[in-house]
Prior knowledge:
The structure is a homodimer. By secondary structure, chain A is mainly alpha-helical. The first copy, chain A, is built from 15 helices and two strands. Chain A has a two-stranded antiparallel ribbon. In chain A, a hairpin with a 2-residue loop joins strand 1 (102-103) and strand 2. The relative contact order of chain A is 0.13. Mean pLDDT of chain A is 89; it is low at 1-9. Chains A and B meet through helix 4, helix 6 and helix 7 of A and helix 4, helix 6 and helix 7 of B.
Amino acid sequence: MNRKLKKPAKTDLLAPFALVRPHLSEIEKLLREQVDSFDPGVQPYVDYVCDTAGKRIRPALAILTGGALGDITPDHLKLGSILELIHIASLVHDDIIDGADIRRKVATPHTKWGEGLAVLLGDALFSHALMLSTEFNDLHLSRGIAKAAREVCEGEIIQTQRRFDLTLGRKDYFRILEMKTGALFAAATGLSAYLSGADEETVEDLYQFGLKLGTAYQIYDDCLDLVGTEEQFGKTLRTDLEKGKLTLPILRLLETASPSQREKLQERIIKQEPLDLPVLSGIADYEGAIDYSIETAVRLVEDARDPLHFLPDNQYRDALFTLANYLLDLLRKLR
Amino acid sequence: MNRKLKKPAKTDLLAPFALVRPHLSEIEKLLREQVDSFDPGVQPYVDYVCDTAGKRIRPALAILTGGALGDITPDHLKLGSILELIHIASLVHDDIIDGADIRRKVATPHTKWGEGLAVLLGDALFSHALMLSTEFNDLHLSRGIAKAAREVCEGEIIQTQRRFDLTLGRKDYFRILEMKTGALFAAATGLSAYLSGADEETVEDLYQFGLKLGTAYQIYDDCLDLVGTEEQFGKTLRTDLEKGKLTLPILRLLETASPSQREKLQERIIKQEPLDLPVLSGIADYEGAIDYSIETAVRLVEDARDPLHFLPDNQYRDALFTLANYLLDLLRKLR
């Protein structure tokens, strides 16, 4: 591939979403087909979790990457739907772990049918996705998908294990993010590039694009939990700290606080006392910590975006740029 | 392969276990190696669950099948260890669902580290096993393993879903057993035969051997829950009915009871009233129902054993026979 730098055209921030819409309805069809392949006794449960208004970011990334590098083939769509199934499986299990009753305005599976069934449903989705991955007849793909699935679980394990662990460092935090969110984003872009027959360097560039974008997206989500309003974002916020999840703004706050501030903060975290905005602002340089986190995520997105300049100049490449810019926009709106 | 009938030599019932012992220590080594491939933050958990005194029946079946059809290769051992990892993953999740505190004399993962971590640990083991399966460089194997894993989960889902469901029929019961226990046994024998390069008919024969043996083994376990003594078997018994699991003896009891007996029995099941031996015996033909279940399992094992006659005559083939006979022996001892 010619690695000459090509400037992206200016586009509407919502353009990538319009561009993938027809392909995303193919993804919905594929997901629906999967439901039918389960035992009739299991189908209604699979149907319920596949039929949510998920954003389908991972399939969208696989589709845009395919488009940027040539054609969007049925294999790109298949990859997208497999990664989405793994994502759905991990959400079913995450919601058990977090005790979340509602996701995207509907009752979570464990709330509806009990924890046992939700555990098993996640398992069945996981193993089905990995079974599907063998249909590519390409072991590199099966392996890459299984590896990403394992990383998602490992990232979640480490996160769960290190709740309320005040020795958690920034390096650990980033490792958790890369595993729990980055891995599937990276699989979507990297394996999609591989499917398009891209050269190794381009595959690696796109893998890194997904990894960094996913990590930045998770930092955005972590900041949102602290500063967002529930009306604005339609999800329960201010829950991370309650659960002992130490996210980047909190790590930064602990780092920059005076010893006495730090002690106060640590005590409140350990005792699970409510730590809302006014409380946090009263303890240490809260705004500085949020700004720092946003800045970190912004730098990651900018880094992620750079290698896109080397891709062929087409509307899908531009849409990948715009997707990155869209995240930058979301991040800036948090301030 | 020459399908001439060959009679098995008479052997000590424990011979198969002596025969696989050296190979099983290889399996333990392989499992231990897997631990190292996890993130350091996850290793201690994986180590804990792999280090149990499991019977390693699935690896033993893979090894004996390999021996019966030629050489026991590193791939047979790898297959055995992958299936054991899937089995361990499913036990971690089953114990959450059943609220079991102790397994094989040690605390279960969810008791030790909480449900969340146990859910994720099972997930990581599942996805690791499926990742390992791609190392065969043979998609038929990856697919067969993923399919077996999915069936285990589906079987458990249907079982969970149909707890306390008095309309459960014998056909449903057998379907659950084939999925939740038969599938991994069948993968051990069938895929092992495939690894040995056996012809399609032999692969199918061995697949059916595993499927039926696994199903019969589960019937044994279901009967044991009703008639065994805890001292004798070192596990908590009489828990199936409490949890609404309708097993073959109970299905038979309901079938053969008079309308008034059936009503009494159904009421006790739904109300989760203790249903121990004296109570059951007082209600309907309890012994007849146990006998019937044992007979069903015996016939299954005999059926399973038949095609072994067509295998080459060697000590591993004999050990497969003896393993089947060992299960027959266990079944007869239940009376």
